[in-house]
Amino acid sequence: MRTTLAVAALLALMPLGLPPYAMTLLTEALIMGLFAMSLDLMVGYARLISFGHAAAYGLGAYTCGNILLHTDIPLPFAVLLSGLFSGTVSIGVAWVCTQATGVSFSMLTLAFAQLLYAVAFKWTDATGASDGLAGIPRRPGPFGTTFFASKIGFYYLTMACLFGGFLFARALVRSPFGAVLRGIRENEAKTLSLGYNTRLYKIAVVAASYMLGGMAGALYAPFAGFANTELLFWLLSGQVLIMVIVGGTGTLVGPILGAAFFLFVQQQLSIYTDSWALFFGVIFIGFVLFAPQGILGLARRGRPTEQHR
Amino acid sequence: MSLLELRNLTKRYGGIVAVNGVSMTVEPGEVRAVIGPNGAGKTSLFHLITGVVKATEGEVLFDGQRVTAMPAFGRCQLGMSRTFQITALFPEMSARENTSLAAQARDKQRWLPLGGQAVFAEAARRGDAALERLGLTHVAHRPAGLLSHGDQRLLEVAMALAQQPRLLLMDEPTQGLSVEETAQAVEVLGSLFAAGGLTVLLVEHDMEVVFRLATKMTVLHRGTVIADGQPDAVKADPAVQDAYLGGYA
Known about the structure:
The structure holds two protein chains of two kinds.
Chain A: H1 2-17, H2 20-46, H3 54-70, H4 75-97, H5 102-122, H6 124-127, H7 151-174, H8 176-186, H9 188-193, H10 198-224, H11 234-247, H12 253-272, H13 276-290, H14 294-300
Chain B: E1 4-13, E2 16-26, E3 31-35, H1 42-50, E4 57-62, E5 65-66, H2 72-78, E6 80-83, H3 95-104, H4 117-133, H5 149-162, E7 167-171, H6 179-194, E8 200-203, H7 207-213, E9 216-221, E10 224-229, H8 231-236, H9 238-245
Helix pairs in contact in B: 3-4, 3-5, 4-5, 5-6
């Protein structure tokens, strides 16, 4: 808890010292961090490998975009609503996808995300098709404040979502529910035979994951001012999975670091080459081979391992 | 009333009849062994009772309640706890976390998504008691995957006991153990059963183990029950000797 507060305080002070363009990067890193952390709930805690997590992000982004374009709902509420919507939709998705396990589960999540991608291209009224939704505003409010519409205010809103999401996710994985998830991760058949209806637990964790991932997407829409089909594309699903693995699965914090690392390396490499992804691929392979515990595992190496509860 | 009753239970896989019209009961307090040569249908019968596979025909009644169509986790919630033929544990968790997670399954608030310290405390208390009953307290904090094979088998029994089961189902409890480990396991299980309060149905092919542990026996041969009763009477049954025991008795 002390570490969490210290990191929060440090991030809260950032706007005092960083130039605007760095604040933009940092805001994006926090959004991506929330997105990657949401996927870690599935991948790291229940071994539910999703190849379609962009579905959560895109759902949140398009929902938030529409709310902000067509209603007067204040920005923070729009983000929360979009997260809840994404989580609710995912219950149906998870119900279908959890019919299968292992690779088949992963393929079904991918198929669902690609389905949404195809829908986004056709459903012009809601998504603007290939043009996307442009000019998404940051609605003022609540209570008449224009703070969250400002650049700094939006940063603090993003920070609040990330830390709120983190505290929620951490409480979840440390609860009795979280203990059952670890059982599913280690031996699902045994967990089932102990009397746990494992499928319900898996559906619930997918819903929580999509809710937080949806919030991340919902923040991205007013951050960038637009939402397009790329937010639903499989490339993003792959990238976020890489962020989780590079950061360290099953740690919540690791994937946030992984997202920041990914964006930073992307930023630096793309100054020199358009093929930055090629070099990042090498870094990724290096992590998988030599540091499968990820960035956080490297940081913790040599120290006594703490009990993850 | 019988705790467990099977009525004309049948399982067919295509043209193969694995279990053929088996009727039997398990009374409260008895330790019943189901024995039979390889391919007799023991494991299939076990799967039908635990709900891993669905019966083609017939009924399974638990404490008078029809559970034939109930999934495995539902049967467990009624009070049937099982161990596996091939040890099934959570290898990266400590022995204590294994029994605790098993006990938690019996808590009404087992799914609690936030907080839950009381759930953990109660589960740990029951889990620790089960570890102690099987003499595993000294390895409670070791990862389950690093225990000796014999201790792993006993840990699985401890997990089942932590659930305070009304019926304990054991699939070949000494499978894969060395001679010494088997003797040890039989001793621990024997005193556990002798202490009373448990109803057990075990499937086993090791005759030594069966005669040491069981108070009642059911003999399967080609999916059909050919004998049922006290171990001594079953041992003397010519049909059983012919089908299975060979020169043993």
